[in-house]
Write a structure and sequence with these properties.
Layout: H1 3-12, H2 22-32, H3 37-54, H4 64-73, H5 76-95, H6 123-130, H7 135-147, H8 151-155, E1 162-163, E2 168-171, E3 173-176, E4 179-182, E5 191-194, H9 197-204, H10 224-239, H11 248-260, H12 264-271, H13 275-282, H14 287-322
Helix pairs in contact: 2-3, 3-5, 6-7, 6-10, 7-9, 7-11, 12-13
Length: about 325
Amino acid sequence: MSLEEAVRRVRLGPLFKPRMTLRQLNDAYLEQYDAAPASVKWLRYNLETAARALGDQRISEITAQEVATWRKSLPESRRHPAHRALRQVLEAALRWKWIEENPATLVKNPAPRVGEIDPFDSWEEIEAIVAELDLVHGVLVEFLVGGGMRPEEAFGADWTDVDLKGGIFTVRRAFAKGRLKSYAKTERSRRRVPRRKRTVAALERLEHRSGIVFPNTAGQRIDINNFRHRGWTPALAAAGIAHRRIYDLRHTYATWGLAAGLDIFTLSRRMGTSVATIDRTYGHLAAGADDYERELLDAYDARSAAFRRCVGAGTSEAGSENG
C-alpha cells in the first residue's frame, strides 16, 4: 500500500474502500437505491454502459480524461444518459467518502439536441380527432391540448383537482407505468393551470364528477399504451390526420401559447419545465409571437410618445399662464 493510500485509510477508517471497482460501486448503489421500478431500470441500463468500459477499474483511479474519452466513444444518443448515470453513482461514492473527487462532474454533459416536434395546426384538427373517440377520451384530448399537461398528469387527475367555476386545474399527481405518483405536498409547489373556456366546456360534458377525471372502461386510470393503440392512433387515421404522438398535444399547447403572446416564464410555470427548455424547444416555432411582440413594443412607443406630448402641452400652458 502506498503512503498516500495509508493516509487515506487512517483518515477514512471503515469507509476506506481502496479496491472497490466501478462495477462493485454500481451494485452497492443499486442495492440501496429507493425509486420507482422504471427509474431503477433506467439507471441499471445506463450504468451498464459505463461498466462495460470502466467496470473493472478502481473508482479511486478513474480520471476525468478517461470519462471524457469513454463518453466520446458512445453513440450521440447514448452519451447524455450514460454520463448522467455514471455521475450519479460516483457522486454517491463521494458522499460516502469512498473517493475524494467525482471525475464525471469535470466533464461536460450537454443535453442532446431537441428532436423535431409536430404540433397540430388548428382546433379543427383537434375536433376531428375528438369526433372519432368516445366521450371520456375525446374530452381528455381537449384537456391536454388546452392546458399543456403531460399525459401522465392528466391520467392522474381526480375531480378534487378541478375547479370548473374558477377555471383552474391543479396538478397534484401523475400516473405512469401502473404507478400513481404524488407531487409536492405544499400548495405553493403545485402547478395551477388556468383552463380556457372551451376546455372547461369539454369537462362539463362529463357527467361523472367524482373520483378519477378520465377513467378507462373499467373505471381505472388510463394506461397510455392502451390508449395509444386502441384509441389515439385509430382516431387520427379515421380523421385523415397525419400521425402525431400523444405528447404532441403538449407541444401544441406550447406553440399556440407562444403565438398568442404568452411569455416564456409564464408558459414554463404552467407546463412545469424550465424557461430554457421552453425557449430551446418551442421558441423557433412560434412565428406569430414575433408579430405580437412587435405590436406590444409599437403600442408602448405610441403611448410613451402620447404621454410626452401631453406633458409637453401641459408645461407650455402652465408657462403661458405664468407669463
